[in-house]
Amino acid sequence: MLRRKQGMETMMNRFFDDARFAGIKPFDSKIWLSSPTMHGDERKWVDDAILRNWVSTVGENIDEIERKLAEYIGCKYAVALSCGTAALHLATKLAAERLYGQAWPTEGSLKGKKVFCSDCTFDASINPVGYEDGEAVFIDTEPETWNMDPKALEKAFEMYPDVKLVVVAHLYGTPGKMEEIHDICERHGALIVEDAAESLGAKYRMHGKWVETGKLGHYNAISFNGNKIITGSAGGMFLTDSKEDADKVRKWSTQSRENAPWYQHEEIGYNYRMSNIIAGVVRGQLPYLDMHIQQKKAIYERYEKGLSDLPVKMNPWDRDKSMPNFWLSCMIIDENAMAPMARGEQDYLYDSIPGKSSPHEILDALAAFNIEGRPIWKPMHLQPIYRSNAFITVEGNGRGRSNAYIDGSGIDVGADIFRRGLCLPSDNKMTEEQQDMVIEIIHRCFR
Ligand SMILES: Cc1ncc(COP(=O)(O)O)c(C=O)c1O
Hints:
By secondary structure, the protein is α/β, with parallel strands linked by helices.
C-alpha cells in the first residue's frame, strides 16, 4: 500500500500500531540531528564582554578567536563575520574582483560569468554566486566522498574553458578530492573558493602533507551556525594567508569605509562583521572542538558497526587521504533493498515491503519516536531555482540525458545519493543507549 506522507503528526502515530515497532516508546526529550553543545565557558566570555561594555563589533573576544582559529587552521589571518554565508560571499567577491576587476556598485562582480560549483551541498555555498550576478554550473558528485567529482570538473573545463572560478564544499564534514581538484584548477588557471562550513577540524593529506579544511582553497570560509561542530549561535570566518585579502574583507564587512574622518565610500559595503557577544560564545566553544570531533567520530563508528548487518552503507570517506570531523553521520540504502519511494516538490510517497525500506520510511519512523533525522541535502541541479542551470557529470552535459526512443539514462550520482540516503541523528549529547535505540528502529524498518 502506498502512503502519502507530509510530516503530519497523526500519520506518524501509525508506527505505534505497526507490529514491527512493538515495545518501542518515544523518547521524552527529542534526539536531535545536531544541536548546540554548551560547556559553560561561553557564558564567561559573553558576561565578560557585557561587564566591560564591549558589545559591538570590536573587542577582545573577536581578536582572540581570530588569533586562535588562524593558529588552529594554520593560516595567517582569520576575519570573524556574522555568518558562514557572509564569509562565502566576500570570498567569492574577492575571487571575482581578482579575476574580472571591480564591478559597478549596482552590479555583481560575476555578471555574465559562469562558476563551477559543488552540486551536493547546502544552497548557502551557491547563493553568493547569485548575489554577485554569476551563473552557477553544477558539477556532479563522486561516490567515494560524496563531494565534487574531479572527472566531472575536468569535463566541465572541456565544455566551458573560459571558466575561472570553482566553489567546492566538503559535505557533512568529509573532505573532498582536493588534490585532484587543485591540480585541475591549476592547469586551467582557475581559483578555488573553499566552503568548509561543515568541516571545521577535518583534515586532508594534500600532496603528502596534512592540511586543515579551511586552508585548501584560494579563499576559504567556515561557519559557527547553531548546528555546526562548534557554534557561536551564529557566525562565520574568512580564512587566508593574504594580509591584503584579510584587510579587504574587514573593510567590506564594516560598510567599506575609506580612510577619512567622515563616512566616505568608494565601493559597496556590507554589515557582515561578527559581534563581540557572538565571538564570546565561539571563544568558549573553541577548547572543545577536538572533543566534539571525537564524540562525532564515536557516533559514526557506532552506526557503522550497528548497521553493518543491514543492506546499507555509511557516508564514505577517503581513509588514506582524509580525516573527517564526522559532523553528520549518514547512510545510504543498497539499491536492491530500496522499497518504492517517490518525491514531489514538497511531499512524498513510499511503500513498506518486508526486507526493504526507504529514507522516508526511516525518517518517519524516527520522527514518530521523537528522533530527528533529515533527507540528504537535495542536489542543487534538482532545485527549482536552478532547474535551467547547466549540470555536468563524468559523461559531460547532465541535462536531457534520457531519450524517449532509447532505453537507459545518464549518470547522476548526486540524485542517486539524495534518493537512497539520509542523515542520521548525530548529536554529540546522544547517549550510547539512545543511539542503540536509533539503530534498533532502523533495523525494524527493514523487517
Ligand atoms: C555547506 C554550507 N555552506 C554554508 C553554510 C552557511 O553557513 P551560515 O549558516 O553560517 O551562514 C552552511 C550552513 O549553514 C553549510 O552547511
